Structure formats: structure tokens, C-alpha cells
């Protein structure tokens, strides 16, 4: 990623995660060195009075600096550029050949062959051969296989990453090119799919963490798209060539800003590492400011932004890693996902930075690892986001249960019971529905004599007994202090009376141990049957009236609302006294 900024490092904001990437690269044959013509190489910086001939003469005289073209080699950023001589070694093969430069440098490379001069650049959209994920030059058929190839790396604002050179046969070149295209397309497809998914989730769940994640992965995709040249070839986005210089570093800075905002929310730093939120927030704001400075077109601001970008990037990467480690240590489950996706970033950044100073020249696959790393990280973080959604759903379920249940007795509270009873009445079921209104007798006396705690224990015992006596489909709730309600779906008056009598008996049989003596409870129950046009309120009102009748008639009994009973029916059919316990 840093290739997009003008500092000497080619590190990516990507993630090294050796196992999977190596496996993937191996599968695609990208990391395997292919049969290619052995090459010698030499280079030196361009001087003003140079001609192609003088450089070649100097090469033959052994005056240029030698290097191995099959290993990564960096040419320093200079105001004049660098000459590079590639000398194919025997056995020579005069078949159709292609010279490739990998990874593709951001600037222009001029080839001064024996024929005409040709410019190679990512943002060259002419009809000539381009190569995908690398620069390619088709060696003219007229050029002898042993002929020297002279290249000039033109001066460029962006730093050239270390590159390696290969001369391959046409068929070998095509095979490798196709493999790279499949590999890169798969990685970009994965990243973009995750971005789309995250955007949908952000809109549907109204959770901004998904939006930050989408922004982060999108910026990373853009960085990789420019850096690997995928957006130039095969996508042929010619409009990008003018803005790549600006868009690249802006995407780098924005990706860190989005990553910081995402990380703070995703790893719940507010809970697990509140102090670290301040520097991470400062990092996000600072990165956004760098983007604005770069876009300002004020030379001084652009220069300052360029100088600050790389150090801030490094500090930011370490800061996010430390924050994730702290969050993991303090119990954040999500921080694990972040660590798995992010930790390899530092290894890759360190490795690619080391390559700039000449280390690890054989690890040219680190470049493709950054691309695959982006896809891998997108998947890991998406799994993390799915896990987060699961936890949020679980928390919501718990909250819902807590909100619907009465804290003391654990039966439905009045609001939840009313909601469900209304839904049942509104369902239009033709079945009869009975409502039982239960009020404990002389509960105030019990409270006054035995204390509030004993009263509470009695309420819990009663609720348990009622729940045990009723069917699971009956709707039991606590309506008020010592009042309970039960809605029986499909119960005729007689059945409702039977159930109510059973409940009355059961409550009276309860024994609440108080001191050494058991405490005897009793309950008065009013029963009402749903009539046409009833709502919960009217049904409860009639059951309540019936309950008062039961109280007035001596308590510990069940009373059916009078309108439910025909005028000629004996009084005993509406009032049932439960035998008293001594
Ligand atoms: N321990 C306890 N008592 C409660 C709770 N909610 C209400 N109460 C008490 O229940 C009592 C209800 O008293 P009243 O409405 O006068 O009725 P009662 O004493 O049962 O008399 P009758 O209903 O006429 O038999 C009051 O003393 C309330 O303080 C509770 O959650 N726990």
C-alpha cells in the first residue's frame, strides 16, 4: 500500500497470514518460479548526457552495478531515473518471448530495444501488450535471444517498489497471466461481496460498525486495485490514470481512518479499553485531515501530508494492534477476530519495508499476499461481524424476556399479558375464551403480620402453583400486587369453573413455612366468558366484578360472572365454595 505514497517502503496495509495465502498462491502457481530464461542485470542512475549506446558500452566494460533480475531489486528514487540492462544468458531460445516486470512499478519504464523505443506503464491504454499485475514487453521477433535489453525507469513522484524481471516464452507468459487474473478477480470479488453485505447490514440493522467496515474494505480494495494495476488492466478504467496519484494515498489514509472507527466499535473499546479510544480517535481524525491536505492543491500542505502519511500509518497500525490485544485481554470476543485479521498486517508491512532496504529479495509473493490478505481479512472480519450480530440478538432476546416477565414471580407482567391477550382476542378464533381473575385473600393482613418478605415468598409460591396447574397454552400473568389473571383459550363456562376451582384448592393447599407454623393462603377467583365485541379491558372488568362477588360471599371461592349464567340456573352453578382447611 505504501507504494502509493512517496516513501521508501512497499508495505501494504494488508495482512500476512502465511498459511492460507501461501496455500492459495501455491495453488495458483503464483509463488512458484517458472521456467524462464536465465538473466543477468546491471543498473545505474541516468545522467543528463547519457545515450543508449554509452550505457551499453559501460555495461560491457563492467562499469554498471550488477544485480540478479530474478530477485527483487529496488532502484532509488531520483530526479533523473535509472538505466537497467537485462542480459539474457544461454541457453538462448528464439521463440516468441515476453519480458515482464513484477510487481508493476507506478511510473513509466522505457524499453530501448534494437527496434523502436516503447513505453510501458500501468496507465497506458494503447493496443500493445500490457500484462496483468505486471508490466510486459513483447520482445520483437527480429531481436536475437542473446541481445541486451536496455530499460530506463523514468523519474516518478511515487516510489518504485523493488521489482524482478523475467523473460518467458509466450505460452508460459499467457498461462501465468491467466492464473493471476483468476486469483486477483477472486480476491476482489470476495472483498466487494463483503463490502456489499456490510452495507446492507449497516442499513438494515442501523449499526454504523458495518458502515465503517465497508468503508475500510472498500478503500483497501481500491488501494490494491491501483497498486496491482487491476483497475487499469483488465478493467481499463482510463479515467483513473489522472487521479491515481491522488486517489491512492487518499485511499490509504481513509482506510486507516475507517479501520480505526470500525475497530473502536467492533472491539467495544469503550468497555474494554476506554483510554485507548482517545489516541485511536485522534488517528482517525488525523488521517482524514491528511486526505484533505492532499486534496488542497496547496504545495506546502501536500508536501506535509506526504511526509506525515507513512509515520502515521505505522503508528496507527501498531496502535490498533495494541488496542486489540488489550481488548482481548479484557474479554472482548470480537477483538480476537480483529487480531486474527490484523496481526499479520504488521508482519507483512515489516517484511515489505525490509525488502526496500534489500532484505528478503526472494519473497516476491508478498505482493500478491497483500491482495489475498485483503480477501482473507474481509472474510475474517465478516465472520466477526456475524458473531457480533449473534451476540446482539442474544442480548436482545434476554432483554425482551426480562421486559415481559414479572421480576418477582417470573410470570408475564401486566403489559406483556395484556399484549398477548389482546392478540388472542383479535385473532378472531370462534372458540370460547375464559378469563380467570384471581385475588389473594387478606394479603394485607399477611404482609402486616408476617412481613413483606413472607408476602413475597407467598406470591412466588402462588405463581408457581398456578403455572403448574394450568396448561402451557393458558396465558398466566400477574395483573397487580396480589392479583393474577389467566386466559383459557377454548374453555366453556363449566370447564373454566373446574379449572378455577382446581386453582383455588391448590392455592389453599399451599404451605408457606413461617416460623414453625405453615401459613395458609386462599384466593378468590372471578370467571368471565368472552362475549362478542369484548376486548381485554371489558373481559377483565367482568371477571373482576365476579371476583368481587366471590370476596363478598366469603372469599376462598370461585364466582362466574352473573351474565354468563341463565336466570333460572341455581345459584350453586355460579358460585363454588372451596372447603376450608383447618
Ligand atoms: N409482599 C408483597 N405484597 C404486595 C405486593 N404487591 C402488593 N402487595 C400487598 O398486597 C396487599 C393487597 O391488599 P388489599 O388490596 O387491601 O387486599 P387484601 O388485604 O388482600 O384484602 P382482600 O383482597 O379484600 O382479601 C397490600 O398490602 C399490598 O401492599 C408484593 O409484590 N409483595
From TrEMBL:
GO cellular component: plasma membrane
Record field: catalytic activity: 2 GTP = 3',3'-c-di-GMP + 2 diphosphate
Domain (GGDEF): residue spans on this chain: 431-563
Alphabetized UniProt keyword annotations: Membrane, Transmembrane, Transmembrane helix
Keyword Membrane attached: yes
One annotated GO molecular function: diguanylate cyclase activity
Protein name in the entry: diguanylate cyclase
Required co-factors: Mg(2+)
EC number: 2.7.7.65
One Pfam family linked to the record: 7TMR-DISM_7TM
Matching InterPro entries: 7TMR_DISM_rcpt_extracell_dom1, Diguanylate_Cyclase, GGDEF_dom, Nucleotide_cyclase, Rev_trsase/Diguanyl_cyclase
Residues that span the membrane, as ranges: 180-203, 210-233, 239-263, 275-302, 308-329, 336-357, 369-386
Transmembrane as UniProt keyword: yes
Amino acid at each position: 500500500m505504501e507504494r502509493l505514497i512517496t516513501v521508501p517502503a512497499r508495505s501494504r496495509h494488508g495482512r500476512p497470514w502465511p498459511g492460507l495465502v501461501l496455500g492459495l498462491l501455491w495453488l495458483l502457481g503464483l509463488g512458484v518460479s517458472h521456467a524462464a530464461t536465465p538473466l543477468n542485470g546491471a543498473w545505474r542512475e541516468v545522467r543528463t548526457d547519457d545515450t543508449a549506446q554509452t550505457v551499453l558500452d559501460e555495461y560491457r566494460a563492467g562499469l554498471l552495478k550488477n544485480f540478479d533480475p530474478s530477485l527483487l531489486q529496488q532502484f532509488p528514487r531520483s530526479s533523473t531515473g535509472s538505466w537497467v540492462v537485462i542480459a539474457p544468458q544461454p541457453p538462448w531460445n528464439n521463440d516468441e518471448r515476453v519480458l515482464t516486470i513484477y510487481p508493476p512499478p507506478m511510473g513509466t519504464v522505457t524499453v530501448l530495444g534494437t527496434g523502436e523505443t516503447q513505453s510501458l506503464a500501468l496507465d497506458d491504454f494503447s493496443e500493445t501488450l500490457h500484462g496483468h499485475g505486471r508490466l510486459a514487453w513483447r520482445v520483437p521477433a527480429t531481436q536475437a535471444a542473446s541481445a541486451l535489453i536496455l530499460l530506463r525507469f523514468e523519474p516518478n513522484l511515487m516510489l518504485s517498489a523493488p521489482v524482478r524481471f523475467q523473460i518467458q516464452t509466450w505460452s508460459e507468459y499467457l498461462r501465468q497471466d491467466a492464473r493471476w487474473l483468476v486469483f486477483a478477480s477472486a480476491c476482489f470479488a470476495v472483498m466487494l461481496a463483503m463490502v456489499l453485505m456490510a452495507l446492507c447490514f449497516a442499513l438494515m440493522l442501523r449499526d454504523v460498525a458495518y458502515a465503517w467496515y465497508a468503508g475500510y474494505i472498500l478503500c483497501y480494495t481500491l488501494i490494491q486495485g491501483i497498486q496491482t494495476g487491476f483497475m487499469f488492466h483488465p478493467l481499463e478504467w482510463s479515467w483513473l490514470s489522472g487521479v491515481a496519484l491522488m486517489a491512492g494515498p487518499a485511499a490509504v489514509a481513509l482506510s486507516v481512518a475507517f479501520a480505526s472507527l470500525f475497530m473502536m466499535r467492533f472491539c467495544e473499546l469503550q468497555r474494554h479499553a476506554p483510554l485507548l479510544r482517545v489516541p485511536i480517535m485522534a488517528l482517525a481524525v488525523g488521517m482524514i485531515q491528511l486526505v484533505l491536505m492532499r486534496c488542497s492543491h496547496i504545495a506546502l500542505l501536500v508536501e506535509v501530508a506526504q511526509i506525515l502519511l507513512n509515520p502515521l500509518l505505522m503508528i496507527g497500525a501498531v496502535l490498533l494492534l495494541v488496542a486489540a490485544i488489550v481488548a482481548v485481554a479484557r474479554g472482548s470476543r470480537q477483538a480476537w477476530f480483529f487480531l486474527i485479521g490484523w496481526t499479520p498486517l504488521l508482519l507483512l508491512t515489516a517484511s515489505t519495508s525490509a525488502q526496500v532496504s534489500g532484505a528478503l529479495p526472494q519473497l516476491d509473493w508478498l505482493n500478491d499476499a497483500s491482495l489475498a490478505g485483503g480477501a482473507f481479512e474481509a472474510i475474517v472480519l465478516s465472520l466477526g461481524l456475524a458473531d457480533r450480530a449473534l451476540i446482539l440478538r442474544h442480548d436482545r432476546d434476554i432483554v425482551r424476556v426480562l421486559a415481559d416477565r414479572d421480576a418477582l414471580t417470573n410470570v408475564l407482567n401486566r403489559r406483556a399479558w395484556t399484549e398477548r391477550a389482546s392478540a388472542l382476542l383479535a385473532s378472531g378464533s370462534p372458540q370460547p375464551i375464559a378469563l380467570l381473575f384471581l385475588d389473594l385473600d387478606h394479603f394485607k393482613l399477611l404482609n402486616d403480620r408476617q412481613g413483606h418478605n413472607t408476602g413475597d415468598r407467598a406470591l412466588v409460591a402462588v405463581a408457581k402453583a398456578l403455572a403448574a396447574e394450568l396448561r402451557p397454552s393458558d396465558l398466566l400473568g400477574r395483573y397487580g400486587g396480589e392479583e393474577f389473571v389467566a386466559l383459557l383459550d377454548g374453555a366453556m363456562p363449566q370447564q373454566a369453573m373446574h379449572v378455577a376451582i382446581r386453582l383455588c384448592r391448590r392455592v389453599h393447599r399451599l404451605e408457606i413455612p413461617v416460623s414453625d407454623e405453615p401459613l395458609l393462603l386462599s384466593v378468590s377467583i372471578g370467571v368471565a366468558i368472552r362475549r362478542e365485541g369484548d376486548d381485554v379491558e371489558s373481559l377483565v372488568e367482568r371477571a373482576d366484578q365476579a371476583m368481587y362477588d366471590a370476596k363478598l360471599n366469603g372469599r376462598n371461592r370461585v364466582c362466574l360472572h352473573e351474565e354468563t349464567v341463565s336466570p333460572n340456573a341455581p345459584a350453586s352453578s355460579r358460585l363454588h365454595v372451596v372447603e376450608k382447611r383447618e
